[in-house]
Amino acid sequence: MDMGVGMEEEVEQSWSLLSWVASCVMVFGGVVPYVPQYQEIQRTSNTEGFSTRVCLVLLLANILRIFFWIGRQFELTLLVQSVVMILTMLAMLHLCCSIQSTNRVSTKQHYITDLDVRYFWRWSRFEDYLIFCFAFTVLSAFVTFLFLDSELFVEALGSLAVMFEAMLGLPQLLQNLQNRSTRGMSVKMVLLWTAGDVFKTTYFVVNESPTQFCVCGTVQILVDVAILLQVFYYGQEMRVKLG
């Protein structure tokens, strides 16, 4: 009997350790894909291969996810993950603004106060991105607390958050199409995106997270695969031209 109880305790301890490791991977694993891209931008002093709209998508998604958590308390791990991701995207934007400021030839600069939609999310100062994020957070907070008692609103908020997140790779996909190249984009970043999204989707399914999260993960995997196909296609096209 004692051996049986001992084995059960060992299994519980092993499972607790595994759950803790999985939670840590969920919180910080999303940051890892941006490390090689950050290093690539620093090394080349060039931001053309990276779409800063990826940062826009993730900032909107994770700010909304935080308010979704207020309305429906799902795993605390996913809330912490959102905070970490917001800080990571702000770091990426800060680097891009610094590089672009250094490389800028034209004296013409664009600010959020210009209210020119043509230059939305193409501002010259990092502070403008902070102002936008602050304004979006305040607006989201006001609307959320106004309709917090509505289950329909809370579910819609969750769906909107994961819809944004599901579109994470879309700006990069479109930029590659526009450039007809994946040059300057970190392939390691996309590979890590794919691995992370597979892990994340599995985590959602195992932990019975809200359905929105599972759908989001599946869509992200499909977009990741499409970007990897672009890497192969444009690489083949380049080899043909050189040949």
UniProtKB/TrEMBL annotation:
Gene3D superfamilies with a match to the protein in the record: 1.20.1280.290
Query: Major place of localization?
Result: membrane
The record's GO CC annotations read: cytosol; endosome; membrane; trans-Golgi network
Q: Where in the cell is it found?
A: Membrane
What are the entry keywords?
Membrane, Repeat, Transmembrane, Transmembrane helix
Which residues constitute the signal peptide according to the record? Answer: none
How the protein sits in the membrane?
A: Multi-pass membrane protein
Q: Which residues cross the membrane?
A: 20-38, 50-70, 76-99, 129-148, 154-174
From which domain of life does this come? Eukaryota
Q: Which processes are annotated in GO (biological process)?
A: phospholipid translocation; retrograde transport, endosome to Golgi
Can you name this protein? Solute carrier family 66 member 2
Q: Which organism is it from?
A: Anguilla anguilla
